[in-house]
Every structure is written in structure tokens, then in C-alpha cells.
Amino acid sequence: MAFAMKLIFAPASPFARKVRILIIELGLQDSVTLVDAGAVSPVSNNGDLNSVNPLGMLPALKLDNGDSLSDSPLICEYLNDLADGPFFPSDANRRFRTLGLQALADGMLDLSVALRYETTFRPEQLRWQTWIDFQNEKVQRGLDKLESICNQFEPTPLIGEITVACVLGYLDFRFADLDWRAGRPALTDWFEQIMLLESLANTRPG
Amino acid sequence: MAFAMKLIFAPASPFARKVRILIIELGLQDSVTLVDAGAVSPVSNNGDLNSVNPLGMLPALKLDNGDSLSDSPLICEYLNDLADGPFFPSDANRRFRTLGLQALADGMLDLSVALRYETTFRPEQLRWQTWIDFQNEKVQRGLDKLESICNQFEPTPLIGEITVACVLGYLDFRFADLDWRAGRPALTDWFEQIMLLESLANTRPG
Asked: What is the pLDDT of residues A10-27, one digit of tens each?
């Protein structure tokens, strides 16, 4: 079965990276054309992107029939369904376990991206240190949680594990000073192993 | 089958409202105890909430077995699954159509809540008008999209329609000046009809 979908993405977007990983893992490279949206920020408009997603957010998937889908967990589930993939299991226990992990990791990504916006796009005199401190604490608590549960991660990654890898990769990319590995040896080892996957190695943010 | 779950919520949270509506629609009122988290803001800590969701975000569901789930779409899907409800259809077309609508509406909620934080919690001298203008435009574009598709909404609401009702209710609650009804007669009529549902009428934000 052939498709002619388009994924609007940005090379630095961790949410788009998750979809790009799924596309590779599901062997859908010939069915989805990647379209680089160029620079996207919370204070710029991109007409092409807005026509696919009125909220102007990445990633956005344009389907064969002209419809579109936004929101990375949804796009991933759609592609997994299309290719009959294993990343969203149907068994309720495994399904909600990996979706719960995905939600935690996506929440950490939301916080991290918001922190990035605050500390780069927002004019310096308008930044709010108290807010920055609270969001940083939340990311740290999320990392501690991941350290405590990563010994229960699936040996063959599901959508939850893939999302965790995208968070850690994003922190390395944008928040190297945060040094998330410090005091988290299990998570450090796990990340080193999962980064051996070609789909992850070939989608490093940049 | 009886459950003893706990939902940590706040009366003003539109994300928590969505879950509260599902609980009523699914007849799970005796299985889920609602626990009011009290005042929650991006710059406050709530130890009880953090112990259930390390990111400190509402709503959070504590399960019988001690595990927890966060993120309103996931909690809703979990409860729907538990009660064998109709709100997340299994047929792929209907499923991705309603999940797409949910994602649009949840995206509008994220933007609206961020706008609310910017214009109330953030100290006045640190607010960024350019950002506020861009986020407002996104919400307006989302509303225009809803106006253009609401004649295709399901007559018996699925999770997508319920989420749309939560956005419109939140805009009425926090952004009455925005006057979302202006120029959107179809959406206005649709909202009036859906608000006749007891589960919606009884969960108005406050």
C-alpha cells in the first residue's frame, strides 16, 4: 500500500523527532515526505503551517485525502495504526503503561520547550526567574521519576520509551548545562543503549 | 465492578473538567473520589499532587493499585476503556476524526491557559504583548476552524466534541471579553445545544 503524506517538521523539534523515528521504525519513509517548516517560533507566523494546523504548531501531518492531523502522540498512533506497528499495544495493561510513560515524557518536553522559549525568544528584561526555577524543578522531578522506573522499561521500545529518548536528547541539545546524567546512572546507561538504534541515531536534533 | 480511584482536580481547570464530564457520562461517580487540589499555579508547589504527578499538573488519577495516570486525554481514554464507553471509538475513521478534534481543542486549551498565566500570574512588568497577540491569534484561528467544521460534529458527542465544549466554556469563564461567539453562529448554536447535557451543565468552571 502506498501513501503520499507530508510531515511538516523542524529539525530541532523534539515532538517532530518522535514522529520521524516512528516513520523509520515503521518503514514508512516512502509514504511520508518530510517538509522542513524552517524557523518556527511562538512569535512568528508560517502561512503554510497555519493552513495545515490553525494553531501553527509542529509537527503536522497532511494526509492523502487533504485532511490533516496535529499533535505528535496522535500522529504517531495514526501511523502505527496504518502500518500495523507494535508501538501502541492493544493489550490494556501494556497500552496504558506505555501511554502513561509517553504522557510523562511529553509533559517534560512541553516544560523544556517552554523554558527554551522563555530563555531565548522572550526579551531578556521580560524573563521571570521564579517561573524558570519552578519549571526546572518539575523537569528535575520528572528525571528522578524516570531514573526510578527505567529498569522496568520495555526491552524493545514502545512509544513511551521512544518519547523518553526524545526528552533526553532534547535536554542534551538545548540544556547541556543541566547535566541530567548526574546522579542518574540507570537512566544514563539506558539512554546509551537506546541511542544505538539507527532511527534514533539518525534523527539527532540539529 | 467497584473501583476506588482518586481524581485530583481543581474546579477551574478545563482539563480536569473534561475528566469530570467523562466520569458522569460513564456512570463512574461511585468509583472515583474527587479530591480538590486547592489553588494550583505554575509558581506554587503542591506536595500531594507532586507525589501523584511529578510534574505537578492537573488532573491526575490515582489508581487502585497505587499507580497513577496524568494528562487528561489519557485519563479519559483509560476511564472509557474501564467502563467500556463509547467516547473513543475503535473504528479507525471515527477514532482519528474525534482524536483529531480533541487534539485541536486541547491545543486551544493549552494556549488559553498559557495566556491566562501570562496575564494574571506573571508580574505585570514582565508580560510580553507580542507573545500575547500571537497566542490570541492562534486561538482565533482555532475558533474559525471549529466554526467551519461544527456542522460535521457527531450528534452524540464523542471525546472530541466534549473537549470543544470545555474550550468554549473556559473562554466564557476566563476570556469573556474575547467574545468568541461574534461571527460564529453555527458554533454558538452547537454550544447552546450541548450545554443542555447534565454532565456539562453540572461541571461549569467556578
From this structure: 999 999 999 999 999 999
Domain A92-198 listed as CATH 1.10.150.20: no
Which residues in chain B are closer than 8 Å to A48, comparing Cβ atoms? none
CB A187 within 8 A of CB A5: no
Report the DSSP beta bridge partners of residue B35: B8
Q: Region B150-176: what's the mean pLDDT?
A: 97
Domain boundaries along the sequence of chain A: 5-82, 92-198
A189 has pLDDT over 80: yes
Query: Does residue A138 contact residue A177 with C-beta atoms inside 8 Å?
Result: no
ipTM value of the model?
A: 0.96
Residue B7 has pLDDT above 90, yes or no: yes
| Helix axes of B185-194 and B129-149: crossing angle, nearest 10 degrees | 80
Report d(CA A9, CA A161) in Å as an integer: 21
Whether A201 has a pLDDT exceeding 70, the answer reads yes
Taken in order A18, A24, A28, A29, the sign of the CA dihedral is: positive
pLDDT reported for residue B1: 57
| B142–A55 C-beta distance less than 8 A | yes
pLDDT of residue B40: 80
pLDDT, tens only, A35-77? 999 878 888 888 889 989 999 999 999 998 889 999 999 999 9
CA atoms within 13 A of residue B111's CA, in its CB half-sphere: 28
Find chain A residues with C-beta within 8 A of B50's C-beta: 141
Does the domain made of B92-201 have the CATH classification 1.20.1050.10?
Answer: yes
To the question of domain A5-82 being in CATH 3.40.30.10, the answer is yes
Would you state the pLDDT for residue B66? 87
pTM over 0.90: yes
Test the A interface: residue of B46, B127, B128 with most A CBs within 10 Å: B128
CA B41, B42, B44, B47 torsion-angle sign: positive
Closest-CA residue of A relative to B130 is A43
Residues of A with CB under 8 A from a CB of B: 42-45, 50, 54-57, 67-71, 74, 77-78, 81, 92, 96, 99-100, 103-104, 106-108, 111, 122-123, 126-128, 130-131, 134-135, 137-138, 141-142, 144-145
